[in-house]
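Ticket #4471: structure export looks truncated?
Reporter: QA, pipeline team
Priority: medium

Steps to reproduce: submit the single chain below to the structure queue and open the exported record.
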Amino acid sequence: MANLADLSRTLTEHLSAHPEDALEVLSAVEGVIRSAAFAPPAITIVPGHEDEEGEWIETTILNPRTGEADTLIAVDTSLRYTEACSDVDFDVKAKVLHIDCDGCSDYDGLVYLTESDQLPASLPEEWSEE
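Actual output as written to the record:
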């Protein structure tokens, strides 16, 4: 099996020659990330608490690979399909298209990374995002 660098190079070459395939590739990657098979290890969440000296320790997350305190990064992986609806303003003179994406976009899909190693992580069982 090719390593990731070789695969990336091959994919880049293919997309340079066939840019029309880019959204299909992106959609396939997004599908894998959203699938049940994509199951990165879960972080551990240590609730805020007082230590032995009575000092408050904030809620901490632990990296699932190292067990060390880390920072969780939420990465939005969604594709946005925004209709060119009434929220579109064509400034013909300046040759600028203004689209208000807040009104008609579909937002969905977070993936988490741990900051120290930039690798995927998931929320612990029974945890969800809002």
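Status: closed, not a bug. The export was complete when the record was re-opened. Leaving a note from the reviewer for reference: The two ends are 39 Å apart (CA to CA).
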